[in-house]
# Entry
Amino acid sequence: MKARTSPKKTAASRTASSRTKTAAKPAPPKAKKPSSLKKPASSKSRSKYPDIQRALERQRADLLEEAGEVLSQHNRPEALPDVSDQASAEEDQRFSMRIMEREQNLLKKVNEALDRMKKQTYGICEQCGEDIPYKRLKARPVTTFCIECKTVQEQKERARR
# Structure
């Protein structure tokens, strides 16, 4: 049988023993959400394609940064004394505007792809409703068609010309 400690402990000894007991106890774990409140793995905040999502977000940031630089450096065309210099400067400006227009269209497609990720419709062909293969999404992250449907669409476009 175990020897019992005397019930007449002094207050100091009780406090000292309670300190050692508390010090010996590990800190309680941080409060976790009950499993019923956890978001499912396919929640809107998580993408099925996290690497593609990061690439799209990086591409969007790059496009916006580049557009900001172009707009901040964009100034009115100079009045150049030579007609050929003036024509060359105007052609350069038109070329820059075409590039900016293409980048604007690409930015729109990137934003649409990120929206589809949020809505969990990313990677589904708009034509046939089948999953677009990962390799295609990796190569062309803004695509909305699988290879077969895109091929048919391009053939129809060529036939119209």
Notes: The chain is about 60% helix and 0% strand.
